[in-house]
Amino acid sequence: MRAFHVVALALGVASVLGCRDEGVNGADSPVLRISASALGKEGDVLRAQLARFQANHPDVRIEQHPTPDSADLRHQLYVQWLNAGAVEPDVLQLDVIWTPEFAAAGWILPLDRFSPDVSAFFPRIIDANQWQGSLFALPWFADVGMLYYRTDLVARPPATFDELFAQAANAQREHGIETGFVWQGARYEGLVTTYLEHLGATGGRILTDEGAIGVDSDQSVAALQLMLRGFAEGITPATVASYHEEEARLVFQNGRAVFMRNWPYAYALLDDPAQSKVAGRVGIAPMPRMATGRPTAALGGSQLAINAKSRRPDLAYALVAFLTDERQMRERAQVVGQYPTRPALLDDPQMSTFLRAPAADVRRVIDAAEPRPVTPIYTELSERLQVELHRALVGQKSAAAALHDAAAEMRIVIEKTRVGESAPRSESSNGRMLPLLGLAIASVAVIAFVAIARRRATRVGSLRAKAPDVRLAWAFVTPALLCISVVAVFPLAWTVWESLHNDDLRLPWTGRPIVWLANYAEAVVDPRVGEAVVHTAIFTIGAVTLEIVCGLLCALALNRDYRARGLVRAVLLIPWAIPTVVAALVWNFMFQPVGVTNQVLLSIGLIDAPLVWFNYAVTAWVPIILSDVWKTTPFVALLLLAGLQNIDETLLEAARVDGASAWQQFWRITLPLLKPAIAVALLFRALDAVRVFDLIYVLSGGGPGTSTEPIAFYTFNALLQNLRFGYGSALSVLVFLGAFMLAIAFMRVMSTDLLRGHAR
Amino acid sequence: MRGRALTPLIATTLMVIVAAFPLYWSLVSSLTPEAQLLEPARFVPRTITLEHYVRLFEERDFWTPIRNSLIVAGVTTLLSVLLGSLCAYALARLRFRGKTPILAFILAVSMFPQITIVPPMYVLLRSLGLINSFPGLVLPYLTFAMPLAIWLLTSFFQQLPRDLEEAAMVDGASRIRTLVAIVLPLAWPGVATAAIITFIYCWNEFLFALSLTVGPDRQTVPVAIAMFRGQYQVPWGEILAATLVATAPIALLVLAFQRRIVRGLTAGAVKG
Questions:
Q1: Which helix (H) or strand (E) holds B220?
Q2: Which end of chain B is more exposed for a tag (fewer CB within 10 A), N or C?
Q3: What ipTM was assigned to the predicted interfaces of this complex?
């Protein structure tokens, strides 16, 4: 009882605290919120500059709206929030590739009315931020992919890729350097940027000037083959296929690579003698070319845009203009080392010191900048491309086959979205009234059902004495039933209805036409759906089998009376009780390349080099399944333990007296009697396993590639990363049907009287 | 004889180690300075620092997600247990037709994949302006909390001895009076257990919180933790510190109420 008073008190305090905050829509004193990178030095300089701006605008609070710094996560959240009509954050930091997408969807303001001084910025970067003739974001800092090289191993930077491979091989041989060339090869946008630079080198294009797909052209295929050539010649290690920026940087920083492709941020870290083994011996240059192309630097970097629903657009623009003005930009270059987007600043005599690289080299790289295709559906195109490129990198497909498939998928995407047609019309209001209508109908239906059922029950075959009982029963049951119908049944019905429409919330000009079963037809032939089903099956079978077996063993071991029993049970229960994402993070940490698992395996000699678990499809499953087993075996063990304790001791006694061995007792008596408990455990665990999401989100993100992507995860991406609500709803219905049929199959096979037992 | 008693002892010790080790490892790592985190670690750390915890609460304002989780889980649990108790009592004690379909309905709802509920919830809440709000989370949470609570409570009510109630009714007390005067005091432990288990499920929920909140002012603890990802560097120290902060209250709850929880979880599954 006392514990409850404490909890109630805590709740009360929390609610009071909670009432003060106004959440997203409306606060008393005006607030302007900006969402931007705030990690490390970026955070320091941002805070300083925001404080400076605040000093000039004392009547408004300037605050940060924290977002994860991972680009993918931030993008998914922006999409989810802006589509939901969030009025904050007012100012958003956008990756350069998001501008056309957000502009086309009407989520950010065109800036022309504020008359920004566009001539002061690099023209290529300005171009990347324009959509249909209007400017939608101001460039904040530039990121350009470039070649890092070891000045002590290489006389001068290579001008062509042939030179690069030759120089790398040389240095590896003569100086015993482990690898020749490292870059970003994991299945993410970084891979596409690396590919873009190889594309520029061979003269290929992702999108031609006419807007057609160009990744299956000869030059584009040659570009991918160029990347693969490194693997074949021993210049590029196979592990590159799991590298993001940091993995590559660490290899180069520890002196284990001759060349590295990376972004400018790495330079300052590489030149820091406190942590880098190659400080003072690093140079930068544009990426090399081949005969048919030119040096290319993938254009990245961030821009600042204004939320179209911001309540203070003028002030928001003032902040944007402030953060991108000469002084703040210069300070950012000084503190963080990020490249300014104003050419004039590169003439500043101190800029070379700030950027820790000769300003002339930097300008050369920025001049080679190549933006990615400026189209609102770039993310979707890139997703398809990433998957296929990665398949080629890990040897699943040849370069030509991978790009051929990628081109086909990308063409389908372009066709479906009809990009470039008329300007976005206003969003259809269908989506707004329908849910409310459905809600009303559902409520009426439930009440009607209950009323009718009550009437029938009272009339048919009930004794006088029981009548008040029945009325009371329905009075008790109705509120809960109503609640459940509203939050569960109605949404399911809505999802089914939505799945019959084509509804892409990012492309409001395509409307919401009814397409009947087209989404289901697409799902059936979508290769990722089939794979997702297989992945779900792998996870379910692997995890649940282990859980039942381990759970049984645990239950048998626990089936004794001893003093510390309560404590043991409590310790075993904790994994079950903690949030899944927490368990996943803990296991993620343990399976990092430098994590404890590798340390143990190394020390007992099972492996001779740290294994990058999340790099390969097979090994990636290990931490995923293990973390699920760790988390839920206690639950299974408890269920089975309860079942064990219900088994009549006398039966076992009799068997023992008759001479049965322990094994025979177990196999012939215990196990059959345990069958109902095992069935229940199996059912619950299997149903949970087919819906797995949290674990995947945190552990592997569905990777490598999409090799650990279960169906619930793919559905989530369709819904809230790509905003394809029609298709995503169809997938949701399929998941539901799958779970439903699984449950029915179970109940049939195991013939457990769960329901009859409860209704006694 | 000694051999047979030893095996379960070894097995039990092994189980406890396996269950506890990952958490112990996280604790150790969360107290390790940033620079040493990605180095091969030792079982007992050389240096201990609280910098990650400090940064967690100062720079990242971890109090807000904790408050959000408390409110959402608390309100959902309250509603589920209140409405669920009534429903469960009716299902367990009162005689009326339609029990089996209702139970089947509730069981079916508890099997709904959450992802199926996300799209309509998102659209509905958006049209009601409830995205990123407390009601906007409580509503979808009831999808799983209500059936769970009803399930747990029905099992519990069934196991209550009927004698006292029947005696009271023979003496002329009405159903409602019996409920209030006799059953409630007896049912208190079971209701508390159902509340604890429901609270734990709500606290741990991730998908709805991820999809239906917009910013840190309404994000719950699991979402806040999952958001700690740097662009180029993953702040493991702070992540692990956050995971431990998120685990500690749950661990305490479990340690305090383990017997109740076990009974609650297993009551529904196995008939005595």
A1: none
A2: N
A3: 0.86
